[in-house]
Amino acid sequence: xxxxxxxxIAADHLKRAQRLVVLSGAGVSKESGIPTYRDxxxxxxxxxxxxxxxxxxxxxxxxxxxxDWYAARRQAVTAxxxxxxxxxxxxxxxxxxxxxxxTQNVDRLHTRAxxxxxxxxxxxIMELKCFDDCQGDPTILDETSLGADRDGxxxxxxxxxxxxxxVVWFTEYLSESKLERARDFCQACDVLLVVGTSGIxxxxxxxxxxxxxxxxxFVIDVNPNDNExxxxxxxxxxxxxxxxxxxxxALLTNT
Length: 255
Ligand code: OAD
Fold this sequence. Notes:
Elements: H1 3-16, E1 19-24, H2 44-47, H3 50-53, H4 56-61, H5 63-79, H6 84-91, E2 98-103, H7 109-113, E3 118-120, E4 123-130, E5 140-141, E6 147-150, E7 153-155, E8 163-167, H8 176-188, E9 191-195, H9 207-214, E10 218-222, E11 235-237, H10 241-253
Parallel strand pairs: 1-2, 1-9, 2-3, 9-10, 10-11
Antiparallel strand pairs: 4-5, 4-8, 6-7
Helix pairs in contact: 1-10, 6-10, 8-9
Bound molecules: 2'-O-acetyl adenosine-5-diphosphoribose (OAD).
């Protein structure tokens, strides 16, 4: 089947959909200039070891190193713009009654593109929280009133523990309430559009199974490369997120 025919099938399903879930991963932000985690050569985990930077143990061992690395990433994310894929996904809100974006990305680009209902499964690099979550999980900190620096890292104004990015690190659990909400939306949706994820990190990777086995969603995988989602997808659109999402939007709006 040629690509144009496949895009038309995707558009036909989206035209009929009342409830859409978009599950996104690092690939959706690639065109904005943010590297993915696992792509050969340029993936983030090709350059840095997760155990050195993205675990609570790493932060305890060298808080300043981890803090500085996240500060640099945050600056990089702030400097870039949402791309065509983020914008097309946000535009779907005007065409489909209920659209929920479930993202593994911590960059906030879906929100900046205008998506209203975004579940940030892995948190957000744009927020800080108390390392000890002293006021409940998560204890989000107001950046204008952080405690004094210790070892070069700001502290929680309530308890004096280190401030840290509000992201889920390796060995940590996702927020149960976010996960439950994401599962509920996946079970209830008509179409699940999976964009730019390798589909190997749990529990996000299990969401397409919720949509398919417990629900009756049509699952569309948007990715230039073969990946784990392909085993369960009804349709695999092999192309970059910006190209594919722009083409789908054009079919939906007849432009
Ligand atoms: P990965 O780096 O594992 O996968 C990125 C996917 O994007 C791959 O399947 C690529 O083929 C695809 N891709 C590359 N360029 C693309 C493009 N232009 N358009 C669409 N897709 C493209 O990233 P994730 O699946 O998001 O977790 O990784 C999941 C989690 O692993 C991340 O959220 C992060 C990481 O460890 C935490 O930090 C908790």
